[in-house]
Design a protein that fits this description.
5-stranded parallel beta sheet; 6 helices; alpha/beta
Length: 144
């Protein structure tokens, strides 16, 4: 898969570690930065690229993961899940068809972050699952 990464300046170290880790898993990575202290700018740009199909998935990092999640979710076709454990990372892909996950560099350790990224990237959404009608409702509302 081709994965795009972005962060705010405070999360640069974790983002770089995760990019190296993701490359070692066999994925192609692209870095959207950021030196921009307005993390919403990076989150929106990344979310637009993922929603437009330029990348398979995105990973955003800020202090808590919350701000970039809110910003990314403003983009039509972007579905960002803020994750804090491996089960959430798994379910983001399997149950919710999230095309972006967000992490908090100040609340998640680097080893846990690597485990979450690995699990997220190993899972694929099943459009025939019991979650499909729930996910479809979100898409339908977005398109109303």
């Amino acid at each position: 898969m081709h994965i795009v990464f972005g962060c705010d300046p405070n999360a640069q170290e974790l983002k770089e570690l995760l990019m190296t880790f993701t490359t070692a898993l066999g994925h192609t990575v692209t870095d959207y930065g950021s030196d921009d202290p307005i993390y919403a700018n990076t989150a929106i740009r990344l979310a637009q690229a993922v929603a437009n199909g330029e990348f398979d998935r995105g990973i955003l990092v800020c202090g808590t993961g919350i701000g970039v999640s809110i910003a990314a979710n403003k983009v039509k076709g972007a579905y960002a899940a803020c994750v804090h454990d491996v089960y959430q990372a798994q379910r983001a892909a399997l149950s919710n068809n999230a095309n972006i996950i967000t992490l908090g560099s100040q609340v998640v350790g680097s080893e846990l972050a690597k485990c979450m990224v690995k699990e997220y990237l190993s899972c694929t959404y099943d459009p025939n699952s019991r979650s499909a009608p729930k996910v479809q409702r979100i898409v339908d509302f977005e398109n109303e």
